[in-house]
Amino acid sequence: MALLSLTASHHELDLDALERLSTGAHSIAGSAVASCDVITGAVVLATCNRFELYLDVDAPLDGPGVRHATGHVARLVADASGVPVPDAATSFRTRAGSEVAEHLFSVASGLDSMVVGEREIAGQVKRALEVAHADGVTSSTLELLFQTASRTSKRVSTDTALGGAGRSVVALGLDLAAAELPPWQQVRAVLIGTGSYAGASLAALRALGCHDVRVYSQSGRAEEFAAARGVEATHDLVDALGEADLVVSCSGARGRMVDGAGEGRAGGTAARREQAIEHVLDAAAVVRARERAAVTAGERPGGRPMVVLDLALHRDVDPHVADVEGVLLYDLATLAAHSPAVASGTVDRARSIVDDAAHAFEESRLGRAADTAVVALLADADRRILGEVADVVALRAADGDPVSADEAEEIARTVRRRVHADLHQAIVAARAEAVAAARSAERSVVDDAEALIAEADAGIV
Which residues make up the annotated site Important for activity (predicted)? Predict the structure, then answer.
């Protein structure tokens, strides 16, 4: 069995490239398990600054099955996103074995985020597993991996200062916006979206003292979201924008495909992709809103400033909004550039926790891989014990001194103690040999992935 991850993040790709690559990410796990026999489980983690695939592959680590699975997933990503296969293959970093756990635990703990120590990622890791579980595409190994990642994240949060800093992409965006806004108690805000980031944004706004919040959603869920949280829903985005000082957009709707759109006719794939690139908020809507509000208030258009935070990876907001007079737009790239540093001692302590958890997880996982060798040794030991006892009983019988049941049991106990004492060293050696072989095979997996990338570059895949 092989545990693999294919990861693409803001560390390796600019956000535009990452956005293109992760279009259709939600469908990849199900497609991978359904269309590739050796992939027994898959979990997709897609956030504002990463797109990662975790795979459980039922094939020898150093065999062709793992390499085939990696190439197959690259083709699925390319097909879903419209990115050429070579570009999709070279966009991912492949990890195997111990590297998989160490990376996921770092991600879940906020150590690999644009804002180091951000807490939203812990919930996103948990939800990624929940989605895979609900879709029936996870595996017992992936379940344990992600559950351990969540436990590790909690330990980092409770045992280091990293967890108490309240750091997040949302908090950073609001900090930057505050310099251009009235006091928070006077700010009129519009929240676009109803997902987890929208909930986090609303909570952050309230913590700052902003309570004049209206919620808009293209999905039609604004009423339910607003009613559950005691805010107002709006169905007219232009009208709401006209009164807003701050817009926080985190729907991610631009990256979603509408089920069935374009299917069953020529050009269906192109139609779906064209639909996916529309912005939730465009410059024309902002201009109309501000002109309408200015006329109502008797002011000149653009006289009152507005800050727009686009927290969606698949940009909700048209970049041309930044060209509208009086509007300041912060997107993820801007926020990444303003991300504050964290004390090195805090990060080192968090990384130590992650390393310990990853080591323990890997020893447990590889220990299970060595169980076959250990079981074989135990079975052989049982055969030796039975054979030696049978020989003693036979010799005593031949000498005319038959062995009673109690004597036979005592003989068996004596032989068992001696054989098991000798067996301990053999088990330790067999387990170490099996673990070493598994680690060596995992290195082969990474080498195979690098060979796959070379083939992708050459257009072979």
Answer: 103
